[in-house]
Amino acid sequence: xxxxxxxxxxxxxxxxxxxxxxxxxxxxxxxxxxxxxxxxxxxxxxxxxxxxxxxxxxxxxxxxxxxxxxxxxxxxxxxxxxxxxxxxxxxxxxxxxxxxxxxxxxxxxxxxxxxxxxxxxxxxxxxxxxxxxxxxxxxxxxxxxxxxxxxxxxxxxxxxxxxxxxxxxxx
Length: 171
Fold this sequence. Notes:
The chain is an alpha+beta fold. The protein has one domain: Gcn5-related N-acetyltransferase (GNAT) (Aminopeptidase, 3-Layer(aba) Sandwich). It has helices spanning 13-27, 33-36, 41-51, 102-116, 131-139, 152-156; strands at residues 3-6, 60-66, 72-82, 85-93, 121-127, 143-145, 164-170.
């Protein structure tokens, strides 16, 4: 059995930091070699801790997924980027959690939280090679759009801007 829950304070650093490294280790190679060479999984995971507060209540949410043995196998986060508008970030499920509908559960949990927070619009970005992620967003009613101004990925990693696809869902 897999459980998904939100944290009210920053998660335990060791296990969550490793989940972030695993996420970036998966995502970085999906970029063209010249782009991938400019990115570091460890550095990107380290940088998250400087902004962790953006993903904590009341302005954000961080959902974590655990397996039956209470091992962290996935997560996803959301932050408010302006009044009534949020951004989904870093949805990731480790290989051992894939095929269980966990990605869907993490999206639905964050959508429910977004509504509870009074958000009316959710933006997301993802790499153009993540076709499964794009299909999942579309399954939930997201539509592909031009870049939105607050795209965390495009702002913090300008080299990625051309590699990203942008999505919007009006709640």
